[in-house]
C-alpha cells in the first residue's frame, strides 16, 4: 500500500479554507480544538449548578414558537425548514437547477437558541422542586449582515437552564455572573457587562419598551463590543405559556448562554493568534493560570 501523505494542519491548511458562503465558516484544526476546549470549560457552570447534560432537538415546531411570541418579536430572524414540492423532484433528479424550484413549508424552524427546544419539551409537566439542565446546540439566525465569527448563519450555543422557584432562578443568574466573570479573568478576556439590546422586529413595541425599562437580559461583551455570553431572567413567562409547574406552582426560569464561536473570536482578539489562545485555554484547563495574565 502507498504510504500516507502528511495532512496539513498548520497555517497552510488554514489559508486554504474558504467560506462556503456569507456567514458560513469552516474552523481550521486549531480553532476547532479551541472551540471544543472552550465549551468544555463552559460545562464547569453545569457542574457547579448540578445541571444534567441533555441533547436538544434539531428543529422546533412553529406552533410551539408562536405560543412563546417568537414571531411577534423576532419574525426576521427565523430560518424555516422546507421540502421541495413533488413537481420539482423529477427536474432535480435530472440535474436541473435548484434555484426557484417550488418548496412547501414543513411547520418547523431551525433553532435560534438552544433553550427553546428544552423548554418546549417540558410543556404541561410538573418538574418537581426544580430542574437544571445543560445543552449545546447549533443555532441559526437570518441576520441582516454577517461578520466572521462575530455573526454567523449558524453557530454553537451552550446554555445552562434553571426551572423552579423565583428565588432559585435569581440565584442561578447570580452564580452564573460570578462564573462567567471569573472564567473570563482566567482566560485573559476583558469583559463589559451591560443590558442586552435584543434585535426586536418592532423597536417601539411593548416588549422592547419593557426591556428598556426593566432589562431581563444582560450581556457580557468583549473588547470590540461582541456579545459572547448572556444571563437571562425569564420570570414565569415560559412557565405560564407552556404550563410548566414546579411543585404545583407556575415555574420560574432563567438561563445562561455562551456563544462558543464568539468566544473563539474573543480569545484570538485578546491573545493575538489562535495558537496563543489555545495555549491559554489549556493552561486554564490544567489549573496553571489564574487572574488576568495574558499570554498573547
Write structural notes for this entry.
The protein is an alpha+beta fold and 296 residues long. It has a single domain (21-78, 111-285), classed as Bira Bifunctional Protein, Domain 2 (BirA Bifunctional Protein, domain 2, 2-Layer Sandwich), CATH 3.30.930. It has helices spanning 11-16, 29-49, 62-67, 70-73, 86-93, 114-120, 166-187, 206-213, 237-242, 260-271, 274-285, and strands at residues 52-53, 60-61, 80-84, 103-109, 131-140, 154-164, 192-195, 217-221, 227-235, 245-246, 249-250, 252-259. A seven-stranded mixed beta sheet has the order 1-5-6-12-9-8-7. The protein has a three-stranded antiparallel beta sheet with strand order 2-4-3. A hairpin with a 5-residue loop joins strand 8 and strand 9 (227-235). It is flat. The N and C termini lie far apart (44 Å). Mean pLDDT is 89; it is low at 208-214.
CATH architecture descriptor name: 2-Layer Sandwich
Number of strands: 12
What count of helical segments does DSSP give? 11
What's the number of domains?
A: 1
Domain Aminoacyl-transfer RNA synthetases class-II family profile: 131-286
Organism: Kitasatospora terrestris
Keywords: Aminoacyl-tRNA synthetase, ATP-binding, Ligase, Nucleotide-binding, Protein biosynthesis
Protein name: Aminoacyl-transfer RNA synthetases class-II family profile domain-containing protein
Short key terms for the protein model shown above:
single chain; 296 residues; alpha+beta; 7-stranded mixed β-sheet; 3-stranded antiparallel β-sheet
Task: Write the SSE topology.
Layout: H1 11-16, H2 29-49, E1 52-53, E2 60-61, H3 62-67, H4 70-73, E3 80-84, H5 86-93, E4 103-109, H6 114-120, E5 131-140, E6 154-164, H7 166-187, E7 192-195, H8 206-213, E8 217-221, E9 227-235, H9 237-242, E10 245-246, E11 249-250, E12 252-259, H10 260-271, H11 274-285
Parallel strand pairs: 1-5
Antiparallel strand pairs: 2-4, 3-4, 5-6, 6-12, 7-8, 8-9, 9-12, 10-11
InterPro entries: aa-tRNA-synt_IIb, aa-tRNA-synth_II, aa-tRNA-synth_II/BPL/LPL
Pfam family, one: tRNA-synt_2b
Protein name: Aminoacyl-transfer RNA synthetases class-II family profile domain-containing protein
Amino acid at each position: 500500500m502507498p504510504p500516507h501523505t502528511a495532512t496539513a494542519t498548520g497555517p497552510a491548511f488554514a489559508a486554504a479554507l474558504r467560506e462556503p458562503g456569507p456567514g458560513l465558516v469552516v474552523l481550521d484544526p486549531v480553532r476547532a480544538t479551541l472551540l471544543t476546549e472552550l465549551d468544555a470549560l463552559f460545562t464547569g457552570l453545569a457542574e457547579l449548578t448540578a445541571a444534567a447534560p441533555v441533547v436538544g432537538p434539531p428543529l422546533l415546531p412553529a406552533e410551539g414558537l408562536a405560543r412563546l411570541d417568537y414571531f411577534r418579536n423576532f419574525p426576521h430572524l427565523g430560518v424555516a425548514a422546507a421540502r421541495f414540492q413533488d413537481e420539482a423532484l423529477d427536474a432535480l433528479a435530472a440535474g436541473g437547477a435548484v434555484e426557484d424550484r417550488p418548496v412547501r413549508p414543513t411547520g418547523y424552524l431551525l433553532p435560534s437558541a438552544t433553550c427553546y427546544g428544552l423548554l418546549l419539551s417540558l410543556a404541561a409537566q410538573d418538574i418537581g422542586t426544580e430542574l437544571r439542565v445543560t445543552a449545546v446546540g447549533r443555532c441559526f439566525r437570518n441576520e441582516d449582515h454577517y461578520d466572521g465569527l462575530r455573526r454567523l448563519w449558524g453557530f454553537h450555543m451552550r446554555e445552562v437552564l434553571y426551572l423552579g422557584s423565583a428565588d432559585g432562578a435569581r440565584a442561578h443568574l447570580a452564580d452564573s455572573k460570578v462564573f462567567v466573570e471569573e472564567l473570563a479573568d482566567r482566560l485573559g478576556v476583558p469583559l463589559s457587562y451591560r443590558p442586552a439590546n435584543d434585535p426586536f422586529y418592532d423597536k417601539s413595541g411593548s416588549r422592547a419598551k419593557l426591556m428598556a425599562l426593566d432589562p431581563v437580559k444582560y450581556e457580557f461583551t468583549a473588547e470590540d463590543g461582541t456579545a459572547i455570553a448572556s444571563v437571562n431572567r425569564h420570570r414565569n413567562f415560559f412557565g405560564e405559556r407552556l404550563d410548566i409547574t414546579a411543585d404545583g406552582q407556575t415555574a420560574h426560569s432563567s438561563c445562561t448562554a455562551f456563544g462558543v464561536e464568539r468566544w473563539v473570536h474573543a480569545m484570538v482578539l485578546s491573545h493575538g493568534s489562535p495558537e496563543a489562545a489555545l495555549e491559554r485555554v489549556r493552561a486554564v484547563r490544567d489549573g496553571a493560570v489564574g487572574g488576568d495574565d495574558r499570554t498573547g
